[in-house]
Amino acid sequence: MGFLEEFLKVNEREHVRRETQPMAARSWNPPEVGRWRLNTNVAFSKDRTKMGLGMIVRDSVGEVMMCATSPHTPVSNVVQAEGEAMKFGMQYAYEAGLSNLISLVKGSSSVRGHTQIIVDEIINKAGLMNYVSFKFAYRSCNKCAHSLTKLALDYDEVLVWMEESPEAVTPLVLADSLI
């Protein structure tokens, strides 16, 4: 399946889900007190020559613990791209010492090839954390991470912010905190 077909199929399913999803489930939700939430996302340049990864970790009141962006060589499919974003987020959160973590995208099946290697790396990294749960988040619930992925497309290096976020993301963080 090509990128266009895969994109259209995912957007068709998301459109149906959006109609049946209650409004409260369409915005970012904070984790329990004493935990952090890691959101990750991926974006492609319009010409598909660049891919950007983004991650953000926030606490129960929506305060940013850390966020990061990274350019990445484009991969062959959306599942693999999302896996790269999760792996990037887990790695940086762990290296920053945020090991009481996470809420991410949940997967219940296995895949073949490079994507399975990425999934295995995510599972191995999750074993180093004190608390991990995996959960799918609609883009409307993940605006900060998505904004970071777009920012990554403009740089050729990994950028990391501790206890703050870049100017372009700050309004989104504040909007989530007010919900």
Q: Main β-sheet: number of strands, strand sense, barrel status? A: 4 strands, antiparallel
Care to count the β-strands?
6
- Class per helix and strand makeup: alpha+beta
- Share of residues in strands: 15-25%
Which architecture name does CATH use?
Answer: 2-Layer Sandwich
* SSE sequence, one letter per element: HEEEHEHEHEH
CATH class: Alpha Beta
Helical fraction: 25-40%
Average pLDDT, to the nearest integer?
Answer: 77
CATH topology: Nucleotidyltransferase, domain 5
Number of helices: 5
Query: What is the strand arrangement across the widest sheet?
Result: 1-2-3-6
- Quickly count the domains: 1
CATH level 4 superfamily: Ribonuclease H-like superfamily/Ribonuclease H
Anisotropy-based shape = globular
Distance between the amino and carboxyl termini: 38 Å
**Low confidence ranges:** 13-19, 100-109
Gyration radius, rounded: 15 Å
Write the layout of secondary structure elements.
Blueprint (H helix, E strand, L loop, with lengths): L2 H18 L16 E8 L6 E8 L5 E9 L5 H18 L7 E2 L9 H13 L6 E2 L8 H10 L6 E4 L7 H9 L1
Parallel strand pairs: 4-5
Antiparallel strand pairs: 1-2, 2-3, 3-6
Helix pairs in contact: 2-3
Task: Explain how this protein is built.
The chain has 179 residues and is α+β, with helices and mostly antiparallel strands. It has one domain: 2-Layer Sandwich (Nucleotidyltransferase, domain 5), CATH 3.30.420. 38% of the residues lie in helices and 18% in strands. The chain has helices at residues 3-20, 78-95, 114-126, 143-152, 170-178, and strands at 37-44, 51-58, 64-72, 103-104, 133-134, 159-162. The chain has a 4-stranded antiparallel β-sheet with strand order 1-2-3-6, sandwiched between helices. A two-stranded parallel sheet has the order 4-5. The longest helix is centred in the first third of the chain and has 18 residues, at 3-20.
